[in-house]
Design a protein that fits this description.
Number of helices: 1
Mean pLDDT: 97
Shape: globular
Helix content: under 10%
Structural class: mainly beta
Number of strands: 11
Low-confidence stretches: none
Radius of gyration: 13 Å
Length: 122
């Protein structure tokens, strides 16, 4: 059974930093594309960043230069380093795992974590 468990969400002031983690089990982690999505209240879920099994990465325009996605295949974990956080980054952040990078980026036929809350507020 595949499980994705996110952690690291918190309340942080604007300009602050957080690192989210997603620990995976039940799958051959190194073969999967991994992604971070977020859903703000009243809005649709959106792709924030994704990383392929070969370490190619994608970032939404809204987070480029501020967020960094990385993976540690030995630990079956994907990370999202978030710097210079803004109030508009407030959302539930979800980890996703897809058999291909394209699937991960489309959010189709992927496994989802339960989400972790990030609140950016003074």
């Amino acid at each position: 059974q595949v499980q994705l468990v996110e952690s690291g969400g918190d309340l942080v002031q604007p300009g602050g930093s957080l690192r989210l983690s997603c620990a995976a089990s039940g799958l051959t982690f190194g073969a999967y594309g991994m992604g971070w999505y977020r859903q703000a209240q009243g809005k649709e879920r959106e792709l924030v960043a994704a990383i392929s099994s070969g370490n190619s990465s994608y970032y939404a325009d809204s987070v480029k230069g501020r967020f960094t996605i990385s993976r540690d295949d030995a630990k079956s974990t994907v990370y999202l380093q978030m710097n210079s956080l803004k109030p508009e980054d407030t959302a539930v952040y979800y980890c996703a795992a897809g058999r291909t990078f394209q699937m991960t980026m489309q959010g189709r036929n992927v496994y989802w974590g339960q989400g972790t809350h990030v609140t950016v507020s003074s």
